[in-house]
Amino acid sequence: MNILIYDPATPIAYTDATLHQQALRGTESTIVRIAHALSRYHSISIAQHCRNIADNLISNGVRYISFATAHTLSPDIVILLRHPALIEMITAFFPQARYFLWMHNLPSRHLHTYANFMAKHRWQIIAVSHFHRKKIEMRLQGKWYQRLFRKQKEMVPVRVLYNPIADDLDFNGIPIDSNQMIFTSSSYKGLIPTLKLFAMVREQFPEYELLIISPNDLDKDIILPKQARSVGPLPPYRLIQHIRESFCVFYPQTERVETFGLVYAEANAVGTPVLAHDFGAAGEILSHPCQLINGYNVSTVIEKIREWREQRPIVKAKPEFRLSNVTQLWLRMFEQSHI
Hints:
By secondary structure, the chain is α/β, with parallel strands linked by helices. 34% of the residues lie in helices and 19% in strands.
């Protein structure tokens, strides 16, 4: 089959080579991994809004193309990334295709306004966790008073397909820096409250350092506390190396839920525990609940660290996140939707 992945949200034009050259956000990393895994079975094109026609290319079996090029194709399947506002346009451009909306972000409160159109044209939604699926289904239904004015005969199917981690991403036994914690998410995902908590942790454990590796450059007005330092964006393979060496991923922020949380899955895969606030998909993705704390209560954070200093937990990846397993679920979804 000819499958088109339509990405209107990426900040950069990426390919699989980008994974080895520079920092890449979790969503784009996931798109690349899934696309190249599926390219063993189907013809895959990734259309990016910021790619020009002159920059179209084929990399390791996947076509990376402009929107203008994509609009000349006749795909069997279109996978729209994140933006339900484009579903009518996609349906008009590709009337013979089957449609999937791959939502990595939390759904808008206006999602219910698209429900009837999506049901009529047999759109399906892909969530990245069961937590995410519940949020999407809730938004599709709307509030009770909104349902009074909307007659919905059919429900829009919502499937769960986890973001993948590499099959060979495992603990490799390298030495751990017992005084190094690490923060690896985008700065808008609660970096400032995380820094405040880290400063309070250091009042009890002054030997700790916090390494900050964000996929985006930090704002100039962010003031780092003592023994916190930013090394800037890094390619994924270098980021993983720093995660391996760290005592833990320090992620107790309470501001921004993760719909999946690649940081949870990848850190656990290499044996590094994550100190995380218990919300969003954290409890679903982390391999053991001992990593969950109340980020609003600094004493629970400090007590957890004290506990781990005595016995650092043994963590590992959940097998359902492995790329080979996730790929099979994608293939099964395509087969089922064809019936």
